[in-house]
Specification:
Largest sheet: none
CATH class: Mainly Alpha
Radius of gyration: 18 Å
Strand content: under 5%
């Protein structure tokens, strides 16, 4: 289990890395960004681009956290009505955590004002699609840690894979640099770990964890 102090340190380091990376890449894409963008130049016009666009917008994109947020609110309301208020409160805290993680792209894009590899609306850093998928995955991992620990490893791997696929889609479409997707993961993980502290979502409070599992 992650303890509060290591989680706080890791969260600060990851968030600091996100902020520093944004400063480093804001005005001039690094060599890796340029190399990948040049290698995939024009792929968004090809059939692979059409398929990738559908996957990016319909599967690995902003729809995921919206759906999860709705499910969490409905489930919390049902549990509250049934008298299982501890679990309802847990779901509401995870909803807040999801919102905090998702907000990273809305907050920081207007700060860094980074241009995209090709002409496209909005700014680049961090990738909103990758933030969406990573936020959803992070929230689900926390949920499983509390209520379904047997599924934790599987959910964690699925979250990592989905985030990687989301990043790949955005890069293939030429709407994000590699560093935009890396920054998205750093931001979500850093904010997520730090957000878990005041929300008491780190599964290290043995009493709360045991009670939540018994009520599940």
């Amino acid at each position: 289990m992650i303890r509060p102090r290591p989680a706080a340190v890791a969260g600060v380091l990851l968030l600091g890395a996100f902020l520093a990376l944004g400063v480093l890449v804001r005005d001039r894409p690094p060599a890796l960004d340029r190399a990948v963008a040049d290698a995939l130049h024009g792929q968004w016009r090809e059939p692979v681009g059409a398929v990738t666009a559908v996957l990016s917008d319909a599967v690995f994109g902003p729809l995921l956290p919206v759906l999860l947020a709705g499910v969490l609110l409905v489930a919390a309301w049902v549990l509250w009505r049934r008298g299982r208020r501890a679990n309802a409160a847990l779901l509401l805290r995870i909803w807040v955590l999801l919102a905090l993680c998702r907000l990273t792209s809305f907050v920081f894009k207007p700060i860094y004002l980074r241009d995209r590899p090709r002409v496209f609306p909005d700014f680049a850093y961090p990738s909103g699609h990758v933030v969406s998928v990573a936020s959803t995955g992070f929230a689900l991992v926390v949920l499983c840690a509390w209520l379904a620990p047997r599924l934790l490893r599987w959910v964690a791997w699925i979250a990592v894979l989905a985030t990687a696929l989301s990043a790949a889609c955005r890069i293939v479409l030429g709407v994000h640099w590699v560093s935009d997707t890396v920054g998205a993961v750093l931001a979500v993980t850093g904010v997520g770990l730090l957000g878990c502290l005041p929300l008491r979502l780190l599964p290290s409070q043995a009493g709360e964890l045991s009670a939540a599992r018994k009520a599940a």
